[in-house]
Amino acid sequence: MKIRSNWYLVMLFAVFMLVLAACGSGEENEEAETEGETANEENAEEADNEDSQEVNLYTSRHYDTDDALYDQFTEETGIEVNVISGNADELIERLEREGENTEGDVFITSDAGRLHRAKEADLLQSVESDVLHENIPENFRDTDNQWFGLTKRARVIVYHPDRVSEEELSTYEALADEEWEGRVLVRPADNIYNQSLVASLISINGTEETSAWAEGLVNNFARTPKGGDRDQAKALAAGEGDVAIMNTYYIGKMLNSAEEEEVNVAEQLEIFFPNQETTGTHVNVSGAGVTANAPNPENAVKLIEFLSSEEVQDEFSEANYEYPVNPNVEPAELLQSWGDFEEQDIDLTQLGENNTQALMLMNEAGWQ
């Protein structure tokens, strides 16, 4: 009986040691699994960080200056800028079509009207950025922070001094007077710059007064509207009309063009900022917004902040003859030579809100 009791004790001790070893092995395995999971998570996070070092830009701007600035952004941040260029309306349609599967992070285009169109289609998202609020005045950004102006363009009266004196010029509204019959050159009604000009006048003067103005302006057209702003300048120099409605930066580009003809045309013409004694000259923007389904939203904000910085705003003005939106930046020397001017005191969001009404008025007035 004593031998059997000892045998039982030996067996119990052996079982106990086996159980203890199993528990220790389980703990070790569990620790190994946990360490493995942690390592995998860290590797995945590192891979995500590597993948996120990019920002995809949908832009309707097509300037060498912009491309150089994107390269500078990459050098400073390590974030690669992938540029997808196209027509503004086509890019808006693309964002709508791609929906949640879009690769687009930032949408950049000319005109507050188009930016508002993207917002109304739920293609942009609100952004909270102290940098953007500091660099961009309130009236040059969306009320819901869904888009931000980056450059300003004044839409002015350009005239030929051999046929028009500066003293004859005053306001946009005065171009509808009988004295300008057969003398006014301007782009067609489908041009967003003209639509935004009319939208601004609706905000200031109301629908009825703006409608009457549009009819009077159409009666004073020198020819059926066609071409772009450069074409209006060329027609003006050729004597087809005496005044043209144009954006300032086109004159800047023509004066510094590689084409001798464009330089010759621009040198013949003068710029007049209308409505200085009343409501101010119409100003529009090129601007940017973060797309609603941006895969890299943080990088998107960084890019827009970079484009609003003083250094970049100065480059926009010097190289592309646009006015900076950042109030701490002086316009380029050429722009300063044209003189200071008062801007329309309206929220640019209204350009988009009034766009449909503006286009309706233009069509009813016969503005082709």
UniProtKB/TrEMBL annotation:
Residues 28-53 are annotated as: Disordered. One of its GO terms (molecular function) is metal ion binding. InterPro entries: Ferric-bd (IPR026045), SBP (IPR006059). Keywords: Ion transport, Iron, Iron transport, Metal-binding, Signal, Transport. Gene3D superfamilies: Periplasmic binding protein-like II. CDD domains: PBP2_FutA1_ilke. Residues 1-21 form the signal peptide. GO terms for cellular component: outer membrane-bounded periplasmic space. Pfam families: SBP_bac_8. GO terms for biological process: iron ion transport. SUPFAM superfamilies: Periplasmic binding protein-like II (SSF53850). PROSITE patterns: PROKAR_LIPOPROTEIN. It comes from the Bacteria. PANTHER family: IRON-UTILIZATION PERIPLASMIC PROTEIN, THIAMINE-BINDING PERIPLASMIC PROTEIN-RELATED. Belongs to the bacterial solute-binding protein 1 family. This is Iron(III) transport system substrate-binding protein. It comes from Alteribacillus persepolensis.
